[in-house]
Write a structure and sequence with these properties.
By secondary structure, the chain is of the alpha/beta class. It is built from 10 helices and 9 strands. Bound molecules: adenosine-5'-triphosphate and magnesium ion.
């Protein structure tokens, strides 16, 4: 059984794409199954930069129906089991202004994906609130909202959430499921708690600000892959573990366990 995870946010530049690809990385590592990150933001095709082998078709071809099956749209990355579905257009709404057709395609996608063999499907969506974001949210089992401690970002998320909750009940009679917050670019844990309290959102996890991000971008590498033991990488791992219902191991217990493991291993290897 797969799960569709929608990554959205009130404003641009809050780290939706960064979180989407690193979440995809950890999902593929922890589940040992194929994981898709969909470049569903045609204005910022950020996750396309991690593709090593492009597929013939992209997400817009799937929405148009040119590609019948999502399997035709899977581009490879340099991480085993991690695939990106690229965006080939500048505006998905250009494909067909009749949203009902897109809704029909996305409903097919949901049924196809849920019965399929993917470990997880992550939608990296456009900034702010718009019609297509509303549909992406409704087809997802989990809705992750990315915020930062910046005041105008928080205002943007509040507006986004009220529009998301109010919108489209008439045509898409399903609620937005699994809403949780990820607070990005924080300097202290307390900041993350405060942001989620203001937003009345359960806090799934937080990600610290890292200066090394630019280095990874220049090399075209996924952050968690390039810096395996960096705090930000481990925070992304914790977020993924929480999503999978496996409680994240805090730093204290993990060092305790690794100490225990080392002692155990040395006893067994000497015996
Ligand atoms: N935790 C972080 N520490 C440092 N830099 C970060 C962090 N998260 C994201 N960034 C950087 O901030 C910028 C915006 O991130 P990203 O592109 O992921 O945001 P986005 O929400 O997808 O933006 P857009 O709405 O424009 O698509 C990028 O340059 C990214 O590398
Ligand atoms: Mg983006």
């Amino acid at each position: 059984m797969s799960s569709i995870i929608c990554v959205s946010g009130g404003k641009g530049g809050v780290g939706k794409s960064f979180i989407s690809i690193n979440l995809g990385y950890w999902m593929s590592k922890l589940l040992h199954r194929h994981v898709l990150v969909i470049s569903a933001d045609p204005t910022n095709k950020t996750v396309d930069r991690y593709i090593t082998h492009f597929s013939e078709y992209g997400w817009d071809d799937f929405l148009k129906g040119t590609a019948l099956d999502i399997d035709e749209c899977l581009s490879r990355t340099n991480v085993e089991n991690l695939y990106v579905v690229p965006a080939r257009t500048e505006d998905f709404l250009d494909i067909d202004p009749d949203l009902r057709k897109i809704m029909t395609r996305l409903d097919f996608f949901r049924r196809d994906v849920l019965s399929g063999s993917f470990g997880a499907v992550i939608l990296d969506t456009p900034a702010g609130y718009n019609a297509i974001n509303q549909i992406y949210s409704r087809i997802s089992q989990t809705n992750l909202v990315v915020a930062t401690p910046r005041e105008d970002d928080i205002r943007g998320v509040l507006e986004f959430l009220s529009l998301l909750r109010a919108g489209w009940r008439e045509s898409w009679k399903e609620d937005v499921k699994g809403l949780q917050g990820i607070v990005n670019m924080i300097y202290s844990k307390e900041e993350a708690r405060q942001v989620c309290t203001t937003l009345s959102l359960p806090l799934l996890g937080y990600v610290g600000y890292t200066k090394k991000k630019e280095e990874a971008t220049k090399l075209g590498e996924i952050y968690s892959n390039l810096f395996p033991s960096d705090p930000v990488t481990l925070q992304m791992k914790d977020i993924t573990l929480s999503l999978l219902g496996r409680s994240p191991i805090t730093n204290n217990t993990s060092s305790f366990f690794s100490l225990y493991q080392r002692i155990k291993n040395s006893i067994f290897s000497s015996g």
